[in-house]
Write a structure and sequence with these properties.
The complex is a heterodimer. Chain A has one domain: Thiamin diphosphate (ThDP)-binding fold, Pyr/PP domains (Rossmann fold). Chain A is built from 12 helices and 8 strands. In chain A, strand 7, helix 8 and strand 8 form a beta-alpha-beta unit. The longest helix of chain A is centred in the N-terminal third of the chain and has 29 residues. The radius of gyration of chain A is 20 Å and the shape is globular. By secondary structure, chain B is of the alpha/beta class. Chain B has 12 helices and 14 strands. In chain B, the strands form 3 sheets. In chain B, strands 3-2-4-5-7-6-12 form a 7-stranded mixed β-sheet, with helices on both faces. Chain B has a 5-stranded mixed β-sheet with strand order 9-11-10-13-14, sandwiched between helices. Chain B has a two-stranded antiparallel ribbon with strand order 1-8. In chain B, helix 1 runs parallel beside helix 7, helix 3 packs parallel to helix 4 and helix 8 packs across helix 12. The radius of gyration of chain B is 20 Å and the shape is globular. The mean pLDDT of chain B is 96. Classes of the chains: A alpha/beta, B alpha/beta. At the A-B interface, strand 2, helix 5 and helix 6 of A face helix 3, helix 4 and helix 5 of B. Chain B: It comes from Rhizorhabdus wittichii (strain DSM 6014 / CCUG 31198 / JCM 15750 / NBRC 105917 / EY 4224 / RW1) (Sphingomonas wittichii). Chain B: GO terms for molecular function: oxidoreductase activity. Chain B: Keywords: Oxidoreductase, Thiamine pyrophosphate. Chain B: This is Transketolase domain protein.
Chain lengths: 331, 330
């Protein structure tokens, strides 16, 4: 392992740690009522998001889902504005108007985390079309789950990208469940990847708990996209540990010992063991974990110290120009 | 300047804006074969990268226009007939209207979605929609419904240059009407600026899209009876030129809205409510609404036409409101 590869490996580990620790803290303060609304956590899927985003350049585009914490962190977003958004503060990445389902940092190429399942697929196809028309060499990657692959938007976006040979990468993070319903009950093919054949599109199935494998698979797709070879469907086989959303336990079917089985292949633990086996000092990884803990704590402090948005903010960003504010608000 | 049709106005607006700004491109179903004549000569001028035929997948390509706009393009989507917007409601409502807001202003969506209001010609219920009012109910979409070729050209050019998403509704009953079209490449009519199509003093007729020519005909007929009708054309519904409408109503003291949409929750209904709330003191009678009856549009020509607004219905409403007058020299 060269030093360069090592840096890259450590960065992958760091980003996975950021996601895990960011969400662990978010879940704890959500339980105490400090985060309003719902919380859809990504725990268990970190290798999928980080591996995929590490295969992208900083200027490439990424579109994500309602499970929105992991994707921007994987793409390199800073934690402070993300945590502030979870608390609904003015300094939040979306000025407190998006919240947990929409953590989206355009400065790192994240074009939105949409909470209508499947609706990001046409957007990513469009971003890829924009790249093609501008000839700027950028690719657009779209994350979605197995449930989304039953949506019309998924098929229309895939078809459009294929027929126009757009530089797009469609990453299905197949965690096995759409809310509570198992994929076996809703997806009539064994692997989501099979659906690519209908669009003459290549596909890759990869172990979603192995960050290096995901990166390699997506890198292959990125290479094809950048050189005019069109889109690829990558299916990462992964798992989410928690309910669809925090405190939605009553709608989740009994998963038996399944969660425990998957935890044995936890992406962070797997990667830590792999790095140590490859010669990385455990102390170095410990140090990264502590640094990330400090970063996350700092993000929470920043969020807590931040002001609430002004009421007038509710009327900004509907259009480029602020809407008039009604009398009952100003009175 | 030369006289040209409404469809030619659309062609000129698109051609000029695509010439001016290479970020502008057009896509939709059957653009290249140029079904309605709004893209004549476009492939030769701009090539097939910027003039794109799409698969029949409205949700897919309208959503893709949103994605392309987010990365710096300025798409014009030709969605042909306005009922074809329904398969794309997911992308129009959840992505195009809301993305800027939910991402706190990080997204910018400069795109135009064109579609025609294709009614009054025995095309049955699925092809006879006048659905702009539905879209007025969601913030984040600008909505234009011009009534003549001149306004069409200036407003479409302004829409292409607008940094917000614009739905452009093209009333097919106006397609063949002609007007003088300015050839100034920067001829723009800003969205949100209405127009008085005819001055009058007894009653304000606020008419939308294809109802404007009907209102002008009615105003002529009313003049023969000694009733002076003012015809107000809002031209765009979002933003809406409320001040122009209220000024007219304060002058005449009477208001009739004429809207080709179904009456319930129509644009005309919203305008009537605005008048009642903000110019009640000036009113000398109730605000009357003329709209399409709240039923689907039938195929049979024997029973379709009577459901829409007509000059006769407008005249009758104005007479009721003003009080029947005899011509002065009768």
């Amino acid at each position: 392992m060269t030093d360069g590869q090592n840096d890259r490996s450590l960065e992958k580990y760091r980003r996975m740690q950021r996601i895990r620790q960011f969400e662990d803290l978010a879940e704890a303060i959500h339980a105490q009522g400090e985060i309003p609304g719902s919380l859809h956590t990504y725990a268990g899927q970190e290798a999928s998001g980080v591996g995929a985003c590490m295969a992208l350049d900083d200027t490439d585009y990424m579109v994500g889902t309602h499970r929105s914490h992991g994707h921007p962190i994987a793409k390199g977003a800073k934690l402070r504005p993300l945590m502030a958004e979870l608390l609904g503060k003015a300094t939040g990445i979306c000025k407190g108007k998006g919240g947990s389902m929409h953590l989206s940092d355009f400065s790192v190429g994240s074009l939105g985390e949409t909470s209508i399942v499947g609706s990001g697929v046409p957007v990513a196809a469009g971003a890829a079309l924009g790249s093609k028309l501008q000839g700027n060499g950028r690719v657009a990657l779209c994350f979605f789950g197995d449930g989304a692959t039953n949506e019309g938007a998924f098929h229309e976006g895939m078809n459009l990208a294929a027929v126009w040979a757009l530089p797009a990468i469609f990453v299905c993070e197949n965690n096995g469940y759409a809310v509570s319903t198992p994929a076996s009950a809703t997806v009539p093919v064994k692997d989501v990847a099979e659906r690519a054949r209908a669009y003459g599109m290549p596909s890759i199935i990869v172990d979603g708990q192995d960050v290096d494998a995901v990166e390699a698979a997506v890198a292959e797709a990125v290479g094809r996209a950048r050189t005019g070879g069109g889109p690829t469907l990558v299916e990462t086989k992964t798992y989410r540990y928690a309910d669809h959303a925090v405190n939605m336990g009553r709608v989740l079917l009994d998963r038996g010992g399944e969660v425990d089985e998957w935890r044995k292949r936890d992406p962070l633990a797997l990667y830590r063991a792999k790095l140590i086996a490859g010669g990385t000092a455990a102390a170095l990884l410990d140090a990264i974990e502590r640094e990330v803990a400090d970063e996350v704590a700092d993000a929470l402090q920043f969020a807590r110290d931040s002001a609430w948005p002004e009421q007038a903010e509710a009327f900004d960003d509907v259009f480029v120009d602020r809407l008039p504010i009604p009398d009952f608000i100003t009175a | 300047m030369a006289k040209a049709t409404f469809l030619e106005a659309i062609r000129q607006a698109q051609y000029e804006e695509m010439t001016r700004d290479e970020r502008v491109f057009i896509m939709g179903e059957d653009i290249i074969c140029n079904v309605f004549g709004t893209t004549t000569g476009f492939v030769d001028a701009f090539g097939t990268e910027r003039v794109r035929d799409t698969p029949i997948s409205e949700n897919g390509f309208i959503g893709a226009a949103g994605g392309a706009a987010m990365v710096g393009m300025r798409p014009i989507v030709d969605a042909t007939i306005s009922s074809f917007l329904y398969p794309a409601m997911d992308q129009i409502m959840s992505i195009i209207a809301k993305s800027r807001y939910i991402y706190g202003g990080q997204a910018r969506l400069p795109l135009v979605i064109r579609s025609c209001l294709f009614y009054g010609n025995s095309n049955a219920a699925q092809h006879s929609d006048r659905n702009y009012s539905m879209f007025m109910n969601v913030p984040g979409l600008k909505i234009m419904v011009p009534s003549n070729a001149h306004d069409m050209k200036g407003m479409l050019k302004a829409a292409v240059r607008d940094d917000d998403p614009v739905l452009c509704f093209e009333d097919s009953t106006c397609w063949m009407s002609k007007a003088e079209l300015p050839d100034d490449p920067d001829f723009l009519i800003p969205l949100g600026k209405g127009d008085i199509k005819r001055e009058g003093s007894d009653v304000s007729i606020i008419a939308i899209g294809g109802a404007v020519p009907l209102a002008l005909k009615a105003a002529n007929d009313l003049a023969a009876e000694g009733i002076s009708a003012e015809v107000v054309d809002p031209r765009s519904l979002v933003p809406l030129d409320k001040e122009l409408i209220l000024r007219s109503v304060r002058k005449t003291g009477r208001a009739i809205t004429v809207d080709p949409a179904h009456q319930t929750c129509s644009a005309g209904s919203e305008i009537a409510a605005i008048i009642a709330e903000r110019a009640f003191d000036a009113l000398r009678g109730p605000v009357l609404r003329i709209a399409t009856a709240d039923t689907h549009l039938p195929f049979s020509p024997a029973i379709e036409k009577a459901l829409y607004p007509s000059p006769e219905r407008i005249v009758a409403a104005a007479r009721k409101l003003v009080g029947v007058r005899q011509p002065e020299n009768a």
